[in-house]
Amino acid sequence: MTVTALRVDVWSDIACPWCYVGKRRLEAALARFPHEVELVFRSFELDPRAPRERDGDYVARLATKYGRSVAEAQQMIDRMTRVGGEEGIAFRFDRVRAGNTFDGHRLLQLGHERGVQITLKERLMRGYFCDGVPIGDPSALVPLAVEAGLAEDDVRDVLAGDRYADDVRRDEELAAELGITGVPFFVMAGRLGVSGAQAPDVLLGALERSLADASMLAATPPQ
User: Fold this and answer.
1) pLDDT in tens, 13-30
2) Chain centroid to CA 3: how far?
3) Contact call for residues 135 and 8 (beta carbons, < 8 A)
4) Closest by alpha carbon to 115, among 142, 145, 150?
């Protein structure tokens, strides 16, 4: 028996800059990995209790969160901006309108069901980090989801109710069971976990190792 596709599950939050960097680095690794991959983005909220939209600018919130001065927080943002630029991400933290990401994750569950999850993930992250979209405002999510390939009626139907809420919570419960406390977190072939926005070479090595392990298991006759 051969492995037809390597499963890669990625726990991440829309409002996590390192998750955006990690997505791009994974994509760079996958571009050098000549095998079929089933990529699934799993839900993870860094702040499940966040309001629809937070007051204050990004620098002030970062300083408060980490107990740093505003100047130190700005240095952190400048570094993140440089890292993002290296991965082709034009971070605009001056535009960021932070808020609750639960509805965004529910739409990503719909996106997975409809085969456009990866495109939607990129659009939501770019909308939040680059375009100043208020990520917690359901009405602001609609055009992004439609642009990514979802039907507007389906999007509005999800946002008007609680569809996929249980799916989001199951992803988060599974993350807790696996001991995932920070994101991005990659699980390859259901066995190998990689924490953090690692370099493409590191992720490529993990992909190759996971494929070799999965192929060996598939070739092992049952006892």
Assistant:
1) 999 999 999 999 999 999
2) 26
3) no
4) 150
- pLDDT tens for each residue of 28-78: 999 999 999 999 999 999 999 999 999 889 999 999 989 999 999 999 999
pLDDT single digits (tens) 95-114: 999 999 999 999 999 999 99
Cα 46 to Cα 162: distance, rounded to the nearest angstrom? 20
Contacts of 61 (CB under 8 A, 6+ apart): 54, 98
CA–CA separation, 84 and 105 (whole Å):
22
How is residue 10 written in tokens?
A: 């990625």
Can you tell me the distance from the alpha carbon of 201 to that of 22, in angstroms, rounded to the nearest whole number? 12
The β-bridge relationship of strands 185-188 and 6-12 is antiparallel
User: Which CA distances in Å does 28 have to 2, 41, 92, 137, 216?
Assistant: 25, 16, 22, 31, 26
* Confidence band of 1 (pLDDT split at 50, 70, 90): very low
Whole-angstrom distance, CA of residue 161 vs CA of residue 144:
19
What is this structure's pTM? 0.95
